[in-house]
Amino acid sequence: KAGVTQTPRYLIKTRGQQVTLSCSPISGHRSVSWYQQTPGQGLQFLFEYFSETQRNKGNFPGRFSGRQFSNSRSEMNVSTLELGDSALYLCASSLQGAAFFGQGTRLTVV
Amino acid sequence: GIQVEQSPPDLILQEGANSTLRCNFSDSVNNLQWFHQNPWGQLINLFYIPSGTKQNGRLSATTVATERYSLLYISSSQTTDSGVYFCAVDLGGYALNFGKGTSLLVTP
After folding, report:
1. What is the mean pLDDT of residues B60-66?
2. Which of B69, B54, B55 is nearest to B4 (CA)?
3. In chain A, which residue's Cα lies nearest the Cα of B47?
4. Considering A46, A73, B89, B102, which has the largest number of Cβ atoms within 10 A of its Cβ?
5. Nearest to B59 by CA among B70, A97, B68
6. What pLDDT is recorded for position A97?
7. DSSP state at residue A26
């Protein structure tokens, strides 16, 4: 079985731009969660989607949004990028609780 | 949400040594997992262990749910065990709340 695939792996954006990150879960997994990892704040939960519905949301501003498609693939979008959005964004797919992570997208905002 | 505290924050071992990493949590959990993050940033799921004991090769984990802690044991450590070990508990659904991690360096 293929693992969790995140694209792109690296991204450099300018302040004020927007960005879309993609996550393809393990086949058969209906839950996709997104996390932001920074040196200062550690790993923080962004949101979780299950069968195309947002089931949980973390404490992030409305500039962070996401969606899940009928094939369980998920995208997250960050609008009006700020320097502080520079981070490693990790996606996880879950089946019956255990989470499996992709390799992440490293976003740098300049 | 449930608070997660990991100790120690940093650990340096010589190859071949054993170690125990601890995770304390503030309330009862339905979901507790241990992860290893390698130097390239990939998070690897080690154990899904809301209670009981599991073993996988040189690694084992025990969660005592009634006392709100979990332990990760690493035996005969190797340099490839270096990285950061995270404990995570449920936030609702399958969302996870992560501890700050234990940074492990295994030297030759």
Report:
1. 96
2. B69
3. A98
4. B89
5. B70
6. 83
7. P
d(CA A67, CA A82): 21
Contact A52, A70 (CB under 8 A): yes
* Closest alpha carbon to A109 in A79, A86, A88: A86
Q: What percent of chain B has pLDDT over 90?
A: 86
Averaged pLDDT for residues B33-37: 98
Residue B30: partners with Cβ closer than 8 Å, 6 or more residues away: A97, B50, B90
- Could you list the beta-strand ranges (E) of chain B: 4-7, 10-14, 19-25, 32-37, 43-48, 52-56, 59-64, 69-74, 83-92, 95-98, 102-107
Q: Do the chains contact at B91 and A45, CB–CB below 8 Å?
A: yes
Contact with chain A for residue B56, Cβ under 8 A? no
Phi and psi (nearest 5°) for A84?
-70, -10
Cβ <8 Å between A33 and B94: yes
For residue B88, the cross-strand partners are B33, B98
Residues B68, B26: contact at Cβ < 8 Å?
Answer: yes
Q: What is the pLDDT of residue A9?
A: 97
**Contacts of residue A19, Cβ cutoff 8 Å, sequence gap at least 6:** A11, A13, A77, A78, A81, A107
The Cα–Cα gap between A50 and A53 comes to 5
Across the interface, whether the CB atoms of A43 and B98 are under 8 A apart is answered: yes
Q: Compute the mean pLDDT over every residue in chain A, rounded to the nearest whole number.
A: 96
What is the average per-residue pLDDT within B42-59? 96
Torsion of CA B99, B101, B102, B103, to 10 degrees: -170
